[in-house]
Amino acid sequence: MDYRVNNISYKYTKDGEEVLKNVSFSIEKGKVTAIVGPSGCGKSTLVQIFSQVIPKLINNGELEGSFDVPQDTFVSVVSQNPENQLFGYGVEDAIAFGLENIGMPQEEIVERMEYVLDLLNLQYLRKRSVDNLSGGQRQSVCIASVLAMKPDILIMDEPVSSLDPNGKKMVQDILGQLSNSGNTTVLVDNNLVWSAGIVDHVIGLLEGEVVFDGSRDEFFKNFELQEKLGVILPQEVELYRELSKQFQDIDLFYTVDEAFAQLQGKVKKKEILQKEALKEEMEPIITVQQLVKQFNDGFTALDHVDAQLPKGKVIAILGQNGSGKTTFVRHLNGLHKPTSGEVLYKGTSILGKTVAQISKNIILVFQHPEHMLFEETVEKELTFCARMQEVPFSEEHITEVLEHYHLEKERETFPLNLSMGKKHMLTILSVLFSSADVIILDEPTLGMDGFLIEDLEKMIADLKAAGKTIIMISHEIPLVFRVSDYAVILNKGEKLFEGTKEKLVEREDIFEKINIMLPPVVQLSKKLGLDEVVFQVDDFMKKVLEQRNE
Amino acid sequence: MDYLKYVDGDSLLHKLDPRTKFVFFIVMAILTSLVKSGVALLFLLVFFVGMWNVCKIQKYIFILFQKLKVLLIFIFLLWFILGLFERPQAGNGPVFYEAMIPFVGGQKILFCFDWYDIYKGLVYSLRIFLMIASFYTVLLTTNFSEIILGLQKWKISYALAFGIGLVFQIIPMIITELKAIMEAQSSRGLEIEECSWTTKIKNYVTFSLPLLFRVISKGQSISLAMHYYQLNFSVHRTAYKKIKASKYDAYFILANAVAIAITVVLHMQFYIAV
Fold first, then answer.
1. Is A75 in contact with A152 (CB distance < 8 Å)?
2. Whether B221 and A129 lie within 8 Å, measured CB to CB
3. How far is CA A429 from the centre of its chain?
4. With an 8 Å Cβ cutoff, are B189 and A385 in contact?
5. Contact yes or no for A206/A46 (Cβ under 8 A)
6. How do residues A199-255 score in pLDDT, each as one tens digit?
7. CA distance A546 to A277
8. Burial of B172: CB neighbours in 10 Å, binned 0-12, 13-18, 19+
9. CA-to-CA distance for A385 and A427, rounded, in angstroms?
10. What is the structure's pLDDT at A1?
11. Touching check for B52 and chain A: CB below 8 Å?
């Protein structure tokens, strides 16, 4: 028997708005069900109802309907921040925590420990401390600690949102293992890029209502709905969407190999056109010379890094977690002082200046918006940088920005009450009012749905058009290749590459070394023999149509 | 570098039963409150320095010392200044300067700068430092899971033991959060480096709001996680790990017993009332 969600409606306060409206669907046993929908659609509320947080911990709302499960069904949750969920110093302590809570005898705890560590291939981590694990490892231990309790339903709430590609791969493999071993898993995430190959069943939520309930393939073929829900799709699905408009006999595909198998006879293979070398002179705005950063514990985070970051371009800083990306950008705005080496802005050293002084030219937007927001209203938050830097601004400009980025309704809202994606967008928007001409964005898409990412891409394009330089750290590789012009690749504190993205795609050895995959559209354009390597789905389609076999 | 948190290691102190370390802290806290002899305290400091070096935690204690510098100087100055207005109460040390100085209402008061002012200031600073350092030694070498286990073995209720363990898990988180908030705001143009003391204090007040929200949000996440892991203090818990004393505890207790005995003897031999 499946688990049944039966006409659930919910209000957080008795006279408040309904956040869930007659929601009904089934969670199939032994399958992976994905619940998707834009920020504020009711996904998180549903998780709280499934896990009994509503009504056990939050009991002042109004709940109607029921979640029909057999008695003693145990539902557990893996949240997006494992550091808030792991209790215990060591990995073994953290895994044993839940089992100790239910009073399981020690011998059985030992058995369960072995079972989950073997199931998830985590034996190598068992003697480590949780503090010293990477994001992916931590999330894996979190999943292990929940699985050890053998939940009937495992809910994963945006489990990879803050992970690097290695971490995502780790969680992806675990989800695959869970699916193969017949666990019932509910994935709550609007980003299906990493899970598209594993999900069986999709539930679409919009404004508290179920607007889709069907198989994964049905969902990926429903383009209109995907757009309506702001789901972040794998680039392969975006390619399928465009290709299916032009080719009658294209089947849905989830991998580059599947796409290639269907397209190879349909596209003429050509040699890559040797274009004339780019004549454009790239004037550096920031020059980094022999930068070394050694921390007090002796760890060398950056080892003699040189870089010349060009003015007016979008520059991507790439590498796995621990490669030195964040340490590198924190030197550019003065948050870190180098052990040795130099950082120059327009030829002048920034080393003697304070962070606030440097922010007039180079501004850094942090990864976690909660660290940055501290005004009472969205409007005041928006103008924070301008006020600190004594840059004039007008009411019209504020209104224009708020309207353009769909925040006008929230003008007087307390910023911390916004959704995660909107909070992040607000911190980025506030730099539009600053005097800085170099803007550093650290993981800007964190918590954003498809709509906000679209807005972000437009904003980056506008800033570039206005002559600003954008430096961006992001693990969203397709996005990076869509928006950036130039890249710096770091690995274990050393610079592996610096140059244009056109040069970068020629260096597959680098991607192998840093264990990051090129975007599907780049891989496919190379495999198919398009006469130009392309970075966007639209450009890919143009090329495919040009080289189409009649 | 990490501050106020457990440091992973394999030293003698790390290998001890947490209960041995709790007793060490309690005994040292009592000893440093009772011992007032400079020589005895100096010996205790030498013993502590030796222990920190053997266990390779001396650099973390040095960081603690730097963080406590202002407090220690304050304590020293407090006793030093109070001592300037009286003659030495003990010993025969030198008096560097003595005079009657004018005071309000035509009265005169005694001003006496002598060795005893310095001695008294140093003794009080050293006592406070040793007391805090003995607690910090336990904190540096006992992770919160061990703290909880140790307290439970002392028949302290799991709810209380878990609460205490959680505090030690959360304190480093709060310090990290505050640092991140300060950095984020300075990155947006708020001057926190080159500013007056009053601005600095004002800034700290401003930072407290986002910090409060971060702490509340973390607290909410932790309580949700406790629910997911079915934590119920009324249910009897079992334990995966067992703790028991080993030969290392015996060595440690022996070394401490000798050190305490020497300290007491020195205290009696070189006691000067402060």
1. yes
2. no
3. 19
4. yes
5. no
6. 999 999 999 999 999 999 999 999 999 989 999 999 999 999 999 988 888 899 989
7. 23
8. middle
9. 10
10. 66
11. no
CA A528 to chain centre: 29
Identify the pLDDT of residue A24: 96
* A253, A235 Cβ separation under 8 angstroms: no
SS3 A189: coil
Residue type, A369: P
C-alpha–C-alpha distance, residues A132 and A150, integer Å: 26
Does residue A96 register a pLDDT over 90?
yes
Most B-contacting residue of A48, A87, A111, A376 (CB-CB within 10 A), to test interface: A87
Contact A88 B222 (CB under 8 A): no
- Distance between CA atoms of A99 and A148, rounded to whole angstroms? 7
Q: In DSSP terms, which residues pair with A439 in a beta bridge?
A: A363, A470
Q: In what order do the strands lie in the sheet with A62-68?
A: A18-27, A3-11, A62-68
Count of pairs with CB atoms under 8 A, one residue in A, one in B: 164
Q: Say whether A96 and B235 touch across the interface (CB within 8 A).
A: no
Cα–Cα distance, A34 to A203 (Å, whole number): 6
Percent helix / strand / coil, chain B, rounded to 5: 70, 5, 25
> Helix or strand or coil: residue A271?
coil
Residue A435 backbone zone (phi > 0: left; psi -120 to 50: alpha; other: beta) = alpha
The reported pLDDT for the residue numbered A274 is: 65
Task: Give per-residue pLDDT as tens, A429-468.
Answer: 999 899 999 999 998 988 888 889 999 999 999 999 999 9
- Any bridge partners for residue A469, and if so which? A438
Q: How many CB atoms lie within 10 A of CB B167?
A: 11
Bridge partners of A26, per DSSP, are: A4
Give the start-end residues of each E strand in A148-195: 153-157, 185-188
Nearest-CB residue to A101 (from B169, B189, B237): B237
A297 with B223: Cβ contact below 8 A: no
pLDDT of residue A417: 85
Query: What is the widest separation between alpha-carbon atoms in chain A?
Result: 72
Nearest CB to B188: which of A85, A86, A385?
A385
Non-local (6+) Cβ contacts of A41 within 8 A are A205, A206, A207, A208, A229
Q: What is the pTM of this model?
A: 0.81
Look at residue A316 and give its three-state secondary structure: strand
Q: Which of A155, A134, A52, A138 is closest to A95 using CA atoms? A: A138
Cβ distance B238 to A81 less than 8 Å, yes or no, reads no
CB contacts of B186 in chain A (<8 Å) are 335, 354-356, 359
User: CA torsion sign, A349 to A355 to A360 to A363?
Assistant: positive
Enclosing H/E stretch for A510: helix A508-514
Q: Strands of chain B (E only): list them.
A: 95-102, 108-114
Question: ipTM of this predicted complex?
Answer: 0.79
- Closest CB from B6, B227, B241 relative to A57: B227
Amino acid symbol at A404: H
Tokens found for residue A433: 């009012």
Quickly list DSSP for A364-378. Answer: EE-S-GGGT--SSSH
